[in-house]
Specification:
Blueprint (H helix, E strand, L loop, with lengths): L17 H7 L3 E4 L1 H4 L14 E4 L7 H13 L3 E7 L6 H15 L3 E5 L13 H6 L2 H4 L4 E6 L14 H16 L3 E8 L3 H13 L6 E6 L4 H10 L6 H8 L2 H4 L6 H13 L5 E7 L4 H10 L13
Parallel strand pairs: 1-2, 1-8, 2-3, 3-4, 4-5, 5-6, 6-7, 7-8
Length: 309
C-alpha cells in the first residue's frame, strides 16, 4: 500500500480579506464517481483532510460509489457518501451499503436525504426513515448530515411554503438532541446572500440549531449555472444569475461566487453566533476550476504528496 507523505499546510494569508479566509476555512466539496474519475490526483487540488461528499445519482452502481470512496479515503480525505432514501430498496440493502463503505473505505459519516426520485424504489421515502432504522448508530457512524433548502423545496411543500420542511427540521433537531450523532445541514446552493441570511436566522428563531454548511456553486459558465439552478429548483436568488445574463459585459465571463461569499463572510464576522459553520462547494464548472478558485480566494493550498513508496 502506498505511503502518503503530506507536507504541512500553508498557513500564510492568500487574500486581502481575512473574513473570507476565515469563512472558507475547512470547506467541503462534492463529487460524483464519473467526475472523480477525471481527476488524476486529488492531492494536487484539495488540502489533506478535506471533507468530500460523493453524490449518489440514481442508476450509479453501489460498487462505483464504494470504489470512489476508497480512493478518496486512501488519499487522506474525509469521505461522506450520499444515502438517498428513495433509491434504497430496504433495510437489508441499507445495511449492506453501510458495511461496504465501512469495510472497504473506512467511512463513518454520511449525508442522508430523500433523493431526487419521485417514486421510491422500496421501503424508504425520507432521510428520517433512514435515521429511524438505527443502522448508522449501530455501525458506529460519527457524523450524519441532512439536507437544507434556503429557498424552499417544492418537492416537500408544493404550495411554495415551508410548513412540512420546518416540521422535518424540528424532528431532525430532536434526533440530534437525543443521540450522539454530530449533525449539520448541508444545503442546496444559492446565489444571493440575503435569502440565505434570512433563512438561517429563521431556523435559529424556530429553535433549530443544527450547524449549517452552506451550499455554494463553484465557478462555471453562466449558462451552466442557470440550467442547474432551474433543474434544482433554486428560487429567489436565480434572479442574480438572470440579471447577470442581461449584462452583455458579463454574459461571456464565467460566474464566480466571490460576491455571495464575501457578503456571508462579512455577516459572520459581524455576527459570530451566526449559524453557518462551513462552506460546501458544488463544482458545477469542474472540480479543478473550483479547487483552484478556492485556493486563490482564501482556501488552504493543496500540498501534493512528496513521496509515494
Amino acid at each position: 500500500m502506498a505511503l502518503l507523505n503530506f507536507r504541512k499546510r500553508d498557513a500564510a494569508p492568500r487574500t486581502g480579506n481575512p473574513d473570507l479566509e476565515a469563512f472558507m476555512d475547512g470547506y467541503s466539496i462534492e463529487v460524483m464517481p464519473r467526475t472523480a474519475a477525471k481527476v488524476e490526483d486529488f492531492r494536487a487540488l484539495l488540502p489533506e483532510g478535506t471533507r468530500v461528499y460523493i453524490a449518489h445519482i440514481e442508476g450509479t452502481p453501489i460498487e462505483e460509489m464504494v470504489s470512489t470512496a476508497k480512493r478518496l479515503s486512501s488519499d487522506g480525505y474525509k469521505v461522506m457518501p450520499h444515502f438517498p432514501a428513495r433509491i434504497i430498496k430496504d433495510a437489508a440493502t441499507l445495511e449492506n451499503w453501510i458495511a461496504m463503505y465501512q469495510g472497504e473505505a473506512g467511512v463513518d459519516q454520511a449525508l442522508l436525504l430523500a433523493g431526487g426520485v419521485t417514486t421510491p424504489h422500496g421501503d424508504f421515502d425520507s432521510s428520517m426513515q433512514l435515521m429511524e432504522t438505527g443502522l448508522f448508530d449501530m455501525a458506529g457512524f460519527k457524523r450524519l448530515h441532512v439536507a437544507g433548502h434556503p429557498e424552499g423545496n417544492r418537492d416537500i411543500d408544493a404550495d411554495g411554503g415551508d410548513a412540512m420542511v420546518m416540521q422535518a427540521l424540528r424532528w431532525k433537531q430532536a434526533f440530534s438532541d437525543r443521540t450522539d450523532a454530530q449533525m449539520a445541514l448541508a444545503t442546496q446552493f444559492a446565489f444571493d446572500a440575503g435569502p440565505i441570511i434570512k433563512w438561517a436566522d429563521r431556523l435559529t428563531a424556530e429553535g433549530i440549531h443544527l450547524p449549517i454548511h452552506i451550499g455554494i456553486a463553484g465557478p462555471a459558465k453562466l449558462q451552466t449555472l442557470i440550467k442547474f439552478a432551474i433543474a434544482c429548483g433554486v428560487g429567489p436568488s436565480l434572479k442574480v444569475l438572470q440579471k447577470r445574463a442581461m449584462d452583455v459585459t458579463k454574459l461571456l465571463l464565467p460566474y464566480e461566487p466571490t460576491e455571495v461569499l464575501e457578503q456571508l463572510a462579512a455577516h459572520k464576522a459581524a455576527n459570530p453566533d451566526f449559524n453557518i459553520e462551513q462552506v460546501h462547494f458544488f463544482p458545477l464548472g469542474g472540480i479543478k476550476s473550483n479547487a483552484e478558485w478556492a485556493i486563490s480566494n482564501g482556501g488552504v493550498a493543496a500540498r501534493p504528496a512528496a513521496a509515494h513508496g
